[in-house]
Amino acid sequence: MGVVYITDGSLDGLLTAVFTAYYTRDAVEGIEQGPPAQSDFTVRYRDIESCEDQAIRVMTAIETKIGDLAMHSVTRAWLSELPGSGIRILEFLRLGFTCGPSVMDRLTHPQVAEVLQAARKVSREQHRMLGLLRFRQLRSGQYLALMAPDHHQLPLIAPHFAGRLGASPWIIHDERRRQSALGEGGKWCIVPGKLPGEPRWDDEEMVFQDLWRQYHRIIAIGSRVNPLLQRAMMPRRYWKYLIEQPDALYRTPGALKSIPP
Fold this sequence. Notes:
By secondary structure, this protein is α/β, with parallel strands linked by helices.
């Protein structure tokens, strides 16, 4: 009977599952990020408890025998949270440990192509998040940014903003996954849970938001508005988190609308 590993969703959990798959005789059919919504009676489920030592051993083996780029791709493919990503990563690593660094050149091999494709999706969205994330000051003095990305981006973008924001206290909240990255003084951590109620913005913050909307409206050239290009460069699902509210600006092609305060 096949076995499906159930992890805690962390990278350590994935690497521990890979370690377990190599040192047991389990016929692994899947590696999941948490319990399945519906159990399958044809497979056996096994809970995998994250082990830092085992995770480090697997990470070191990947970087030594396959290369840093492989570890980079595995990390992002796991954060993609795409269905079946866990077992695809295991198959990719089995091939990589056999072939070595040359596995990264086998772009048409299905076990390689699927992992690299998932990693590219995460990297593209990571680039968007770094440019589209908007921080707003709360009355408490913290800076809050809201998002709901397709993939799990907090572990990737939190180190960037920890370096950029310095000593300022900040929060990046992922509404889809109900997790937040908390940072201050160059350090950060990820905690579960949703925000307690509606954010209470600082009064001065509201003034700056209005000024930004007015600036965005004034510099826009109505005759050059191109909604199709806007949606191609910045998908509509991100718009509601932008202070300038482009969906309110351009409700009809070529028509420049006023922005509500």
